[in-house]
Amino acid sequence: MAGRDLSPIRAPQPASERQYAELDPVVVIGTGLVGASIGCALSAAGIQVHLRDRYRSHALVAAGLGAGTVSSAQNSAVKLVVVAVPPDAVPEVVERALARYRHAVVTDVASVKKPVMDALREAGVDLSRYVGSHPMAGSQYSGPLTASPHLFVDRRWVIADGSGSAQAVRRVEALVALCGARLIHLAPADHDRAVAEVSHVPQIMSSLTAARLREVPPPDLLLAGQGVRDVTRVAGSDPTLWGQIIAANRTEILTQLRAIRADLDQLLEGLGTNDPQAVTGLIAAGREGVSALPGKHGHPGSALDTVVVEIPDAPGALARLFAEIQAQGVNIEDLSIEHDLAKPAGYLSVAVEAGHAEALRAAMTASGWELRS
Amino acid sequence: MAGRDLSPIRAPQPASERQYAELDPVVVIGTGLVGASIGCALSAAGIQVHLRDRYRSHALVAAGLGAGTVSSAQNSAVKLVVVAVPPDAVPEVVERALARYRHAVVTDVASVKKPVMDALREAGVDLSRYVGSHPMAGSQYSGPLTASPHLFVDRRWVIADGSGSAQAVRRVEALVALCGARLIHLAPADHDRAVAEVSHVPQIMSSLTAARLREVPPPDLLLAGQGVRDVTRVAGSDPTLWGQIIAANRTEILTQLRAIRADLDQLLEGLGTNDPQAVTGLIAAGREGVSALPGKHGHPGSALDTVVVEIPDAPGALARLFAEIQAQGVNIEDLSIEHDLAKPAGYLSVAVEAGHAEALRAAMTASGWELRS
Question: Residue B302 has what pLDDT?
Fold first, then answer.
């Protein structure tokens, strides 16, 4: 937390008249990282937010950070209730909120959607005013102190289909829009499978890795570099919260973890018999898997085109080459070296956005570089 | 690689006269990321560096980035040879370099030290001019294109004890110093155990996680957030290189991976029987393990002191509190909320460097905040 930015919150776009009419006022129940951040985003957009938490100190801190007010709402006026409590408590708190705020739509932000909906159905709750949702944002930190109105900007936010009237869904969509997130509609079971794959299982792998560090002699830990820190960062997460998330989604997680155990067993066997292919194969599979992840903001990577330049056999020439590419105002998206048996020097392959390649080629040729067509 | 910085290299400190006398000129064999970065650091310090690579295109690119020259050295003048080739090739290349550069000290940078030394001993090589070493730096990228003279700054760099004359060791220490790294001497076996713990096993766990992503339906991948990206970042590493590293250190790695499999089996059983303690216990163990990692640069965290402030029950007060702490010029190292059954509002615990706490307490009291003593 060193260097934490405590400067005042930059306001996002104010709510439109329609958004204001859909949402104002909102009650947020549970002022941990996610609840407090939602409060901050809505407050910054001009929506009145009432904060509730079983720990008044959390609600006060969230309020102090700009997430809303700790004063009570007029129950019948509330348009939207956001339930941001730990997963185990969600069904009960949603049920109580539906009863208390008779004209409000109630959403929750739990990381697992089908068990919540099943529990509400089992309890016989009328689900026309309930819409489950899940913002794909968070961090290894918990509690309101690291809240930010920008936590959800450009992140995916899932709305779970299968409950809620059209009007109810619209209100939650307005919430997602005001938080700056990118909306996805998913069936609850599809959501739960997807988060097991891309969130819960990676969390467990991180924790398994980190748990072994307890056995490492402290001097050995001095050799830790950025790699192990990245792998274990999410292992710093809250055990109670994650215990509940994983338990709630255990069927999906079990299936996927069993597949990993099979991969691990295969690797152990390969290491035992010193079969180099077992190791190289796993690392290659991992590299393939990581390249399947979409670009940072969930965009499919934009189309790239490649300009291939003969590598100059003269000192300083390459630095000049890079300087000229930059002077063209073109961003280099990727660089690689190609060996060519017929040419000792080989080629440098420069990937740029497709729209820029032609102009770059013309400019490079004009400057005397040898391009491969 | 988007936004890659192609601006000219900032020069580190120039070599001292003693360092210059110890090292100039250097031959770097193998101009991948590590070899090219060493070349860049030494060249920037004013040392003459001759680059060699089985792929001339790599050496040319490294030279173009400022790592040295592709022209040949006068063999008898060379003071230090850095062997930065893939692990499997290291013993043979070291042996040839010792024969070719008769007055040079030869070091290697392979990630595993005992097998290299054993292979050289077995080949009957005189080890008085050989000193094994290992800079704890690198990335998921390979090849010279991502080389940087700053790659090793503040990173640990191990010198493996058990070979090399005192003078030979001094030369490699001069190399470490010029690269800006932090020196550690370790026995080869201790080094290999430590890197298995903090590098090779985390790499495997990252690859195991990433390999499963190949089976994930592409729409599910849209839900991927920062967590899975962090866990799988090093899984982007080069399969051939890592296959060799892991195979070379397989005995240590096997022991540690078997312990992880036992943890995984226990978790699978707990999930199968819906034992919440199995999950919470693992996440808690992981959190404990990750907190055992030393601070970012390997310093033990500096001593902190805590100032405990009653949380103000008034809107906007907390923002004012933070502003006042910042106005004191004190960096907040950590923040947490303490519940207190006797006080509805609770306390905010503000950790600052030990030397700053007293002045902060005085200033806060003077401004009217309620502190807990």
Answer: 58
Query: Is residue B5 over pLDDT 70?
Result: no
Average pLDDT over residues A183-204: 97
- Whether the per-residue pLDDT at B218 is higher than 50: the answer is yes
Instruction: Say whether domain B304-372 belongs to CATH 3.30.70.260.
Output: yes
- Is the Cβ pair B55, A197 closer than 8 Å? no
Distances from the Cα of B330 to the Cαs of A9, A248, A274, B82, in angstroms?
20, 43, 55, 45
Number of Cβ atoms within 10 Å of the Cβ of B86: 18
Considering the domain B17-186, what is its CATH architecture? 3-Layer(aba) Sandwich (3.40)
Chain B contact for A313 (CB, 8 A cutoff): yes
Confidence at residue B142, expressed as pLDDT on a 0 to 100 scale: 74
Report the residue from B143, B155, B264 with minimal CB separation from A225: B155
**Interchain proximity A271–B292, CB inside 8 Å:** no
Average pLDDT for A348-365: 84
The fourth-level CATH superfamily of domain A17-187 is NAD(P)-binding Rossmann-like Domain (3.40.50.720)
Contact B247 A219 (CB under 8 A): no
Range A193-292 has CATH code 1.10.357.10: no
Portions of chain A given CATH number 3.30.70.260: 304-372
